[in-house]
Amino acid sequence: MVTVRYFKSATDKEFESHFVDNLSAFLKSKNFNRDELLDLRFFKGDVLGEEIDTINGYFLDIPEGEIEVFHGSTMPQGPLVPFLPYIFAALAFVAAIALTPKISLPNEGNRKQGSSTNRLGASNNEPNINGRIDDIFGHVAKHTPPLWQVPYRIGKDNQETEVLLVAVGRGKYDINTDNIYDGYTPYVNIPKSQVSIYEPGTHPGNGSPSQTIGSVIDEPIGIYRESNDLNASELLPPNDLAIGQDAVWSVVGSAGNATFTLDNIAELDVDLQDYFTAGQDLQMIETYSSEVTGSTTLHRSYQPPGPVPIQHASKDFDEVTLTDLSGEHEITSVTSNTVSVTDGTWGTVSGVLVEDYNLVVSQSLITLFTTLDSEINDYTWYQTYDSGSGEYSDPVISVPQNLNPDIGQVFDNVIGPISIYQGAERIIINLTSASGFYKIDGTAYKRIDACVEFVVEQLDINGDPTGIVNVTPVVYSTNPGNVTSSVYQTVYIDSLFERSRVYGRRTTNRDKSDGISNVDKIELTLLYSFEPNPPGVDFGDVTLMHCVVPSNSQSRLIKQRKTNLDLTRKITQYLGGGNFGPVESYVTDDFSQILIHAGLDEKCGRLNTSQINMDNIISLKDQINSYFGGTEMIRFGYDFDTSQMSYEDMFTTICNVVNCIPYVQNGVYDAFFEKEQPTSSLQITCRNKISESETREDIFFKEYDGVELSYRNEETGVTDTIYIPSDRTAVNPDRQEFPGCITELQAYRRALRMRNKQIYHVVNAEFDVDEFGRVIVPGQRIDSPDGTRFVRHKGNTDGYNIYDGEIVEVNGLVVELSEPVAFIDGEDHYVQFTNANGDNSELILCNEGDSEFEIVLSSTPAEAIYEGYDRDKMKYTFCSEQLRESIALIPQTIEFKLDDGQEINTISSINYDSRYYKDDMETI
Prior knowledge:
57 strands, Ubiquitin-like (UB roll), elongated, mainly beta
């Protein structure tokens, strides 16, 4: 019985007492998680006494005495009790387990992705609210970063321009600005595009960009909200519902009343009752009545034909008084060709409304003359003439020729109200004319202007108007570059009110003169509100990219943006021997450096340097380069974008790409490069196996007859697929994704391996092993005779002539074995021992001894055979040379458990076959 005193904190006096058979039972009862296990320290009797050695794991079986158990992280960091970051071998409850992959690659087809980069379908810049910030390692092409603020469109130089703020990813990146794209078009090839890249610790408005395309973007970042109250709507002119300039009217009336008669109703084929209704209002537009109230004499000079001097002429003209009839007037009655209205402010109305001359408007003159004589209208007339000096003064302007008198329905051409988010500091409104903004007079294309007005109305806390408004007039004009080109203008209104709503309307009429065609549609397409970020906002360890991309002449005004870029992560290089290079300055897609950096990253692995076998991982890179004869097979690139992926998943994903099998052993992350292995490194004998635990399965029927392996092409960013057989004749191929693979050669060689394993994988083996299972490494070839067929007596005719056991005694070259063996005539037989460190010894040729339990070695082993009692006796395997490879296995998973205090490691393996790797050097 052992007494365990468990202190949750080394500085507390309180503790839990446990009376158990051994420490294994105590650890099992507490259900510690991995981090808690790795933090434990053990002392005999007193924390200041002897610390128990945990390296070999025997301490788990201590049967008696008192043991103090503490969490090392809670212990004082003083000279008496130095804290050492031990990773206990015996606490390998996750040893060689968690990271060991199955023989097939993990299929991530159904995983939930947080970004568009890894999506097999269309990829667009999308919001990533509360999602994982992309962790990109290695080289990734066509990375489509998520949005970090609502993208918004504005007009610049009458082009639709979209402004994006995207989060490239955590950390720093090597980015070539030539490889930043809108879809497949480089930004550098898009006129007037802009990009500003901000490294961690900076952002727009705080620090300078590290790289730019074009000038630095001056658009503020913050909270942009697109209004849901607005559908793209035309701002209609006030005279939109008028009858039109082709109508010829006559009008008669008296004080307060008038009747309009449509004289050319037959020509227009209209019925006024379709336009107007009694009791409603009629809109009179630019309409004046004229009355002759006197006459005046005007003067001009002219040049008669022939060689005569300039002449002077005078002429009498009518003086006309104008009455403004414009405005809204109540309709009293309607017939098919007449409309009668009433208004108490009119004087006597009479006259014929025809050809714009009896209905006129002027902003500056009261006295006008009217005439249809072009010979008169072609001259400038003056009110005064001095015959002595021959000078003229006080010029008179003739009647304007562009009047648009008309009558029509009264309508509300206001768009709104549109609610504005409370606290918005700016309103952004886009006005567009997709087909241009101009008019055609005959064959002449003419520029035009229109006035638009926006009214921001203050609201009280209940949402009711307070009566206070802010009016913003806007002049909307033809595209200055080309009369027929589209127009895209943005209006910025600084909001003066905490709560508000906005209205918009067009205040300028449309020209409805005879012979005029109008292309003057003004649409209010988008409205945003803007709030700046709070002061001191920190974007964290994230690279940001601020983008402005204008549409080209072929683009629609609304389209999906696909801003993407090629990039490679900058990481901290491990130099070996515990030394590192400058922080986040090393540009690489080398898997070994990525494994180490990600493992030590505070957001990914959160490991310390003792929890990852860094030097071995660096050596794996050298092994792979040497094996394949180049650096192509160590490359990696992937966007870790989903919160559902743990560091163990990351570790496995990275290792898979480079043909390494990852594992955690003794609490340390490590990996093994899987390749052809001519000899086994370890052997598992019946002495290590738990009795009757072994099962064997012969694979006769193959599930798959081919491979379809998908990977992400490093040049295009598009998913490509390797087919084995290449003619796609496989009926049931194993369809797998290969995340992190970026080259065709890597994918092609892996697909060949997969196909070879489909063919030559013929045995599955599983058995339980004692504590010796801790030293087994997934992927590393071992020898293990078939325990389901093992025979103990020479006379058995089972035919399985492979034997294993442990050494009983050694006398010179004669070795006594724990199990009987049999020699096959005509074949050479070899024995292989287990060395003290658990590795296999060299193969030693041997002959028959005096009994079936004895063999005679042909030479002495390199390491003396141990036969004592202080530690385990040496194990052996024995068979003919021809049968040696038949006992070779490749461990796939090692699962640990405690059964009544006994450590059990379950080893799952497949048969080793060198033909798995026969196509490793194939080229495309």
